[in-house]
Amino acid sequence: MPAEAAIEARGLRKAYGSVEALKGVDLAAPAGTVLGLLGPNGAGKTTAVRILTTLLPADGGSARVAGVDVRTEAPLLRSRIGLAGQYAAVDENLTGYENLEMVGRLYHLPKGQPRERAKRLLESFELADAGDRLVRTYSGGMRRRLDLAAALVAEPPVLFLDEPTTGLDPRSRLTLWETIEARVAEGTTVLLTTQYLDEADRLADRISVIDHGLVIAEGSSDELKDQLGGESLEVTLEEEAATEAAIAALASLCAAEPRRDDGVLRIPVAQRRGAVAEAVRRLGEAGVGIDDISMRRPTLDDVFLELTGHAAEAEDEEEEVTSR
């Protein structure tokens, strides 16, 4: 394992009866970075997280996290990681402060530290004013922030976030993103699973796309987008019947085969600069009317759709499988 790798898994396999949740997954994250794990529910993301956090034994393969072997040194590893999942794992009958202090005691922190860290984390997560309130009175966003704070009580070098912003409103999601970025800036390594591709685009240094238990693509966000080619002109014509004339007029600009989707003509171009103006000129000379024209770069949504054949959101099958 490379000296600077905080997370490394090789050939992870896990099956539930005849269902193979993981079929030989390799993952790696250098220290102080965010590894985004993308895939529809049922793809194997949560299974991988459970194995890497010692909650589930693998059927095969190996993994080291924070320099510790996941299988043979599980008790030691648990003291070096934090975990926050889709649902806030906090006690509704305790206050926010009591929840954090309790976590510190469970980690066997030295006397006085649980109280000190609870106060500091409540302030960091903008929960200080609600620290003495019972958690049952918290909003969903507040509970999620408290859950993430609890995962950080022991100041772990590696943090696992399993779809931490699912169901949050946009403002709460943004606040949580900023919190994650601050932790990474301080040296924490994060493995983030998410259904929100804009979340991965913003936070992840590297991304692994997993589907049907296999990693089917990996790289930075830009590298994955570049796999789909460069930018494209998107042209909405006044009349659909003019499609062939438009394609003929723009033929020399095309870097790949143009296509028409949902009433929009997409023209891959080799060069961005001046493409819109040139396209408008050529279409005008050809007598082709346009309603709209713009330049568009592939998004992670496009990457995901191209790789998996379906959108990021899907039925939650993995929870059903892993609970058997």
Which architecture of the largest domain per CATH? 3-Layer(aba) Sandwich
Total strand count, please?
14
In sequence order, what are the helices and strands, one letter per element?
A: EEEHEEHEHHHEHEHEEHEHEEHEHH
Q: Which strands sit side by side, in order, in the main sheet?
A: 6-7-8-3-9-10
Q: What is the averaged pLDDT score?
A: 87
Number of helices: 12
Structural class determined from secondary elements = alpha/beta
Q: What is the CATH H-level superfamily of the largest domain?
A: P-loop containing nucleotide triphosphate hydrolases
Q: Which shape, going by the Cα principal axes?
A: elongated
User: Percent of residues in beta strands?
Assistant: 25-35%
Annotated CATH topology of the largest domain: Rossmann fold
Q: What's the CATH class of the largest domain, please?
A: Alpha Beta
Q: How many structural domains in the coordinates?
A: 2
Low-pLDDT stretches are 314-324
Keywords, please?
6-stranded mixed β-sheet, 324 residues, Rossmann fold, 4-stranded antiparallel β-sheet, 12 helices, Alpha-Beta Plaits, alpha/beta, elongated
